[in-house]
């Protein structure tokens, strides 16, 4: 009999990975098919969605909180309270 060879080569961008093995013994065991995953997994999508939502909602919550403070302080000095609020917006 001859030599059985098995080789894998993967190139992704600048990173290259290769593996090769040879044996003179016959391969008798059944080898399961490789399981390949690509793309995003559910935890990755949830994390990215949470980060995007945080970046969108955090400034909105901050502006609404500052507006509430300006409305509360407008009873004492309207001009000073709204000046501080509009200064933050711009």
Structural class: alpha+beta
Global geometry: rod-shaped
Measure the end-to-end span.
Answer: 80 Å
Mean pLDDT: 75
The proportion of residues forming helix, as a percent range, comes to 40-55%
Biggest β-sheet strands, sense, barrel: 2 strands, antiparallel
Overall strand count: 2
**SSE order:** EEHH
Strand content: 15-25%
Radius of gyration: 31 Å
Uncertain residue ranges: none
Give, in spatial order, the strands making up the sheet with the most strands: 1-2
Q: What is the overall number of helices?
A: 2
Question: Summed up, what is this model?
Answer:
It is built from 2 helices and 2 strands.
Structural description of this entry:
With 90 residues, the chain is an alpha+beta fold. The chain has a domain at 42-90. The protein is 49% helix and 20% strand. The chain is built from two helices and two strands; from the N terminus they run E-E-H-H. It has helices at 42-73, 78-89, and strands at 4-12, 15-23. The protein has a two-stranded antiparallel sheet. Strand 1 (4-12) and strand 2 (15-23) form a beta hairpin. Helix 1 (42-73) packs antiparallel against helix 2 (78-89). The longest helix has 32 residues, at 42-73. The model has no long low-confidence stretch (mean pLDDT 75).
């Amino acid at each position: 009999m001859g030599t059985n060879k098995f080789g894998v080569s993967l190139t992704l961008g600048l990173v290259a990975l290769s593996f090769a093995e040879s044996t003179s013994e016959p391969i008798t065991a059944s080898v399961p098919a490789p399981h390949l995953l690509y793309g995003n997994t559910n935890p990755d999508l949830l994390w990215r969605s949470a980060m995007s939502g945080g970046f969108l909602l955090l400034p909105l919550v901050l502006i609404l909180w500052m507006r509430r403070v300006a409305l509360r302080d407008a009873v004492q000095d309207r001009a000073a309270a709204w000046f501080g609020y509009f200064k933050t917006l711009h």
